[in-house]
Amino acid sequence: MDKIRVEICVGTTCHVLGGGSLHDLEDHLPSRLRDQVEVVGAPCLKACENGNYGDAPFVKINGEIMAAATIDKIIARLNRL
Amino acid sequence: MKRIHVEIERSSRSKRGEEVCGDDFKVKRLAGEDRYIAVLSDGLGSGFKASLLSTMTTAMALRFVSDNMEIVRSSEIIMDTLPVCAVRKISYSTFTIADTYVNGHTRMVEMDNPPYIHLRGAEEVTHEKQTLASAKHPERKLLVSSFDALPGDRLVFFSDGVTQAGLGHPGHKFGWRREGCLEYLQAQLRREPDVSALELAARVVAEACRQDPAKTAADDTTCVVIYFREPRNLLLLTGPPFKPDKDAEFARYLADFDGKKVICGGTTANIVSRELDRQVKVQLPKVRERLPAAAEMAGVDLVTEGILTLTETARVLEAPVPPLDTPGPALRLFELLHNSDVIEFLVGTRINEAHQDPSLPIDLEIRRNIVKRIVRCLEERYLKECEIRYI
Fold first, then answer.
1. CB contacts < 8 Å between A and B, how many?
2. Confidence label for A53 from pLDDT (cuts 50, 70 and 90)
3. pLDDT for B352
C-alpha cells in the first residue's frame, strides 16, 4: 500500500505563523502510523496567496490542503485515512 | 583585457616590546576608476614615533597617488612634511606604493623598502626599474616600474623586518634576506597554488619571526600580498518576476550562469523548478531552527526560504563575527557570499500579498529593501562587487 504523503510548507508565511513546529511531526506519530506516512517539506504550496484556503500554516496530505495545521489535527486526519 | 579580482591583504607584527607598530599600511579602492592603491611605510625607529612617521607617509602617499600627482613631487612633499626626530635629527620613512587597475595594469613606486616580488605561479617575474630622485633629496632614490599582471599572479612586498629577520644570529649573517623570503614563497605556492592573499601574508610574517632565536619579531615586520584572481561569481535569485511571462527568461539566466547559484524563496524555487524541470527537495532539519528549512536542486548550490533567511543573513553580515546560534540556511548563505567576489542579485519584484497581511506577528521587510541592505554591507564592509537587477 502506498504511503500517505504529508507535505509541510516551509514558505515564509507558513513559517511565521507556526509552520516550524510541524517539522517534528514524525516524532509525534503514533507507532502504527509511522510506517504508513512519508513526511517531506515543500518549498511553497502557494496556499496563502489565495484567500479561499484559510490560514497558514498549510500542509498537504495526499494532495489535499489543510489550513491552520497543527500536529494534532494532522494526526487526526491521518487516522481517518 | 579580462577583468581580474584584486585581493589585497596584509599581515603585521610589532617589534617585540613595542605597543605600537612602526609600519603602516593603507589601501583604497577608487571605484569610479576600477583602481586600487596600496601603500606600505616603515617609519624610522620603532614605537609611537615610527608609527607617526609611517602613518603620515601612507596617508599622504595615498592622497597624492589618487590625485595622480607626479611622483617625485609627491615624495618631496612627504619628505619635507615628516617631523624631524629630536634624537636622530632626521625625518625618515620608507614607502612602497602599488597602484593597480582591475585589468591587471600595475605601477610600483619604491623608496628604501626591500624590492617587491612579482610571482607568476611559483616563478618570479622581474622588471626593469627607472630611478628617479628629487633635486632637494638626491640621496633618496625612487624606483619606478610597471607591468601587466595576469590572473593568478601575486605581488608581494614587505618591510625590512621580513628581510632582516634573524640578522646577527648564527645561520643568518645577513638575515633571512629577500632570497630567503622568495624561496619560502615559492615553496608555499608549489604546495598550495591557490593559497589566499591573507594566508600567504600571515605565513611570511610567521616564518620571518621564526628566523629569530626568540621566535618573535625583532623589528616591525609587515608583509603585503596582492593576489590577482579569477573572480568568483555568484548569482542570487529571489522573488517571482513581476510578469509571469518573464519566468522562462528568469530560470534560463540561472541555468546559463557561470558561477555559484542561490535561490532564496519558495515561490522562486518553484518557478525555477518548473521551468527547468528540476525537482526541489526540502531537507527538514533534525533539530528545529529559527528559519525554515533549506532545500536542494540539481545545479543550484543553495535553495532557501526568502525574506526571513535574507533578513537573518543581513544580520550575520553586519555582525563582527557570525553569531553562534545562526541557523543553518543563513550561515550557508553567508559563507557563499563571503567566499565570492562578484555577486549578482536578480530580484523578482512581484509583491507577495500574503506577506503584507496585518495579522502576521512580525514585520516582513520588502524584498527590494532587504537586498539593498545586504548589498550595502557586502560592498562597504566586504569590498565585494555587487549588482542588483530587477525583473
1. 85
2. low
3. 79
Cell numbers for B105, please give them. 595594469
Q: Chain B, 258-297: which have a CB under 8 Å from a chain A CB? A: 265-267, 269-270, 273, 280-285, 288-293, 295
Tell me the pLDDT band of B173, cut-offs 50, 70 and 90. confident
CB contact under 8 A, B354 and A49: yes
Instruction: Provide CB contacts within 8 A for B181, sequence distance 6+.
Output: B117, B156, B158, B162, B163, B204, B208
Answer whether A44 sits within 8 Å of B308, measured CB to CB: no
B273: confidence class by pLDDT, cuts 50, 70, 90: very high
Q: Tell if the CB–CB gap between B267 and A44 is shorter than 8 Å.
A: yes
* B contacts of A11 (beta carbons < 8 Å): 266-267, 292, 305-306
At B36, give phi and psi (nearest 5°).
-120, 140
pLDDT average, residue stretch B144-155: 96
The CA distances from residue A15 to A9, A47, A66, B226, in Å, are 8, 13, 15, 45
Quick check: B238 and A12 in contact, CB under 8 A? no
Three-state secondary-structure class, residue B336: helix
**Exposure string (b/e) for B143-170, b if CB count within 10 Å is 16 or more?**
bbbebebeeebbbbbbbbbbbbbbbeee
B251 touches B272 (CB < 8 A): yes
User: Is ipTM > 0.85 here?
Assistant: no
Instruction: Report CB contact under 8 Å: B292, A12.
Output: yes
The contacts of residue B172 (CB under 8 Å, 6+ apart) are B165, B166, B211
Task: Name every chain A residue with its beta carbon within 8 A of the beta carbon of B290.
Answer: 20
Name the β-bridge partners of B229: B5
Residue A57 preceded by cis peptide, ω within 30:
yes
Cross-chain CB nearest to A23 (options B284, B361, B364): B284
CB B11 within 8 A of CB B204: yes
Contact between B162 and B208 under an 8 Å Cβ cutoff? The reply is yes
Instruction: State yes or no: pLDDT of A48 exceeds 90.
Output: no
Asked if the C-beta of A37 comes within 8 angstroms of chain B's C-beta atoms, the answer is: no
